[in-house]
Write a structure and sequence with these properties.
Blueprint (H helix, E strand, L loop, with lengths): L1 E2 L7 E4 L6 E2 H16 L5 H10 L1 H9 L8 H12 L10 H8 L6 E2 L3 H11 L1 E6 L3 H11 L5 E4 L10 H11 L6 E5 L2 H9 L3 E4 L20 E2 L1 E2 L3 H7 L3
Parallel strand pairs: 1-9, 2-5, 2-7, 5-6, 7-8, 8-10
Antiparallel strand pairs: 3-4
Helix pairs in contact: 1-2, 6-10
C-alpha cells in the first residue's frame, strides 16, 4: 500500500457501508433485541456476516442483467428471506421481517465520522456515493446526524458500484471533473474502480468492520492511493480542513 502525492480536489464522495457506518454492530444490536422479545437464540454475529456476504452476489445479478434494476432495500430483503430458516427465524411475521430489514437505515457511524465530516464540509462539498438507495441514505443521515451536502446513490444512475457509470455520474451531477472528485472508502476495490474512472482516491481502513479480530476483507496490497488516513479527522488534517 502506497500513497501518491495529494492533488487539488473540489468535492469528496464517500462509500457508506463499512466506511462511514458500522453495519455489523447495528445488526447484532437490533437482532439481539428482536431475539429477546421472541425468546429466540441466534448467533447474530454469524447472521450479520452472512447477510453482508450476500450483498455482492445480489448486486452482480443486477449488473449482469439477470434481473432488472432493484434497490438495495429489496436486495437486502431477498437475502434476509434466504437466511431466516437457516438461523431459526422463520417464525418472524411480516412486520418483524420488515423492521429487521430496515436495520440498514439505522446504522451508527464510526466515532470519528460526524466531527470529521463537519470539518471537511467547511471546505469541500461532501456527499455519499453508496449502493444504498436514496431513502435508506436519507434515513441514516437524519438518525445519525451525518452532515452531507447531498445524497448520491447508485440508484440515481441505474448502476451499482463498481460500474464506471456511478463514479462518472457523481462527478457529472456535482459539476466537477473526475480528477477534482475524491472518493473516500475503506475498500480498495471500490477505490480501484474510482481511480479507473479518473477520480482521486483516499483510503481510510476500518479494521473493525467485521468485528474484533475480523481483519480487512479487502486488503490493499501494493495498491496506490492519493491519500491514506487512519480516520476522517486525519483525512481532514491532510486536506487542510
Amino acid at each position: 500500500m502506497t500513497t501518491a502525492s495529494p492533488v487539488h480536489v473540489r468535492a469528496l464522495v464517500f462509500d457508506v457501508f463499512g466506511t462511514v457506518v458500522d453495519w455489523r454492530s447495528a445488526i447484532v444490536r437490533d437482532g439481539r433485541a428482536l431475539a429477546a422479545a421472541n425468546g429466540l437464540a441466534v448467533d447474530w454475529e454469524a447472521f450479520a456476516d452472512a447477510w453482508r456476504a450476500g450483498y455482492q452476489p445480489a448486486m452482480q445479478r443486477v449488473r449482469s442483467g439477470a434481473v432488472g434494476w432493484t434497490t438495495i432495500d429489496r436486495l437486502h430483503r431477498e437475502i434476509l428471506e434466504s437466511l431466516l430458516p437457516r438461523f431459526g427465524l422463520a417464525s418472524l411475521d411480516e412486520r418483524e421481517r420488515d423492521a429487521l430489514n430496515r436495520v440498514w437505515h439505522r446504522l451508527d457511524p464510526w466515532p470519528d465520522v460526524v466531527a470529521g465530516l463537519a470539518r471537511l464540509k467547511r471546505r469541500y462539498t461532501i456527499a455519499t456515493l453508496s449502493n444504498g438507495n436514496v431513502s435508506l441514505l436519507v434515513d441514516m443521515a437524519k438518525r445519525a446526524g451525518l452532515p452531507w451536502d447531498t445524497v448520491l446513490s447508485a440508484e440515481l444512475f441505474g448502476h451499482y458500484k463498481p460500474d464506471r457509470e456511478v463514479y462518472l455520474g457523481a462527478a457529472r451531477v456535482l459539476d466537477v471533473a473526475p480528477a477534482e472528485l475524491l472518493m473516500v472508502a475503506a475498500h480498495p476495490s471500490d477505490l480501484a474502480a474510482a481511480a479507473q474512472a479518473g477520480l482521486r482516491t483516499a483510503y481510510v481502513p476500518r479494521p473493525l468492520e467485521y468485528g474484533p479480530g475480523g481483519g480487512l476483507h479487502d486488503a490493499p496490497g501494493d495498491q496506490t492511493f492519493d491519500l491514506v488516513a487512519a480516520d476522517f479527522g486525519a483525512l481532514a488534517d491532510q486536506l487542510g480542513a
